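Office hours follow-up: a student asked to see two folded examples consecutively, so here they are.
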Amino acid sequence: EVQLQASGGGLVQPGGSLRLSCAASGFRYSSFAMSWLRQAPGKALEWVSSIDRDSENPIYSSSVKGRFTISRDNAANTLYLQIGSPQVDDTAVYYCAKCPRHQSYCMVSSYTDRGRGTLVTVSS
């Protein structure tokens, strides 16, 4: 059974920083690309970033590019999202998601599994 558990959320001030983690189990983590998604209050699920299985060519949505950094540790079966220069509009529940086999990224319409999220609140 695929299990994905995000953690590290909390209250952060604008301009601060926060690192989210996602512990993965139940599948061969190093063989799959992974993504971060988020859902703000009252809004639809939104793709944030993806990273392929070898950590090459990470991609980002235009709203977070230059501020967020996705990374992974295949030995530890863990996915990370470093949130830099957070803005109020970044307030959301953040989820990690597993991509289909042989895909180097996946977005809202194409992930196969999504774990429990972690809430990030950006406020002064």
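And the second, which I mentioned at the end of office hours:
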Amino acid sequence: QVQLVESGGGLAQPGESLRLSCTASGFKFDVYAMSWARQAPGKGLEWLASIFSDGSDPWYGDSVKDRFTISRNNVKNEVYLQMNMLNPEDTAQYFCVSGWHSSPHDYWGRGTQVTVSY
């Protein structure tokens, strides 16, 4: 059974950091590019970051470039999103997704909520 399980979301104050983790199971994780996306209430899906299967050449969306960092550990079957300098506009449900941001996506996690507020 394929699973992508996100964790690490929660409440943060503006300027703080959070680290999201996504644990994969049920498929050959180390041959897939992986991505993070988010959806804020009333808004469409926004792609944040992608990383190739070997961890090379990460891509970032403009709104998170220089603040967020994607990484992965193929031994642990995990992908991470380090989020720094959070602001209220980062409030959203964050999803772990298989595949490059612009490619078809076989697997989706259920998401983890990030709320940035005082």
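Two things to take away from it. The CA atoms of residues 57 and 69 lie 12 Å apart. The radius of gyration is 13 Å.
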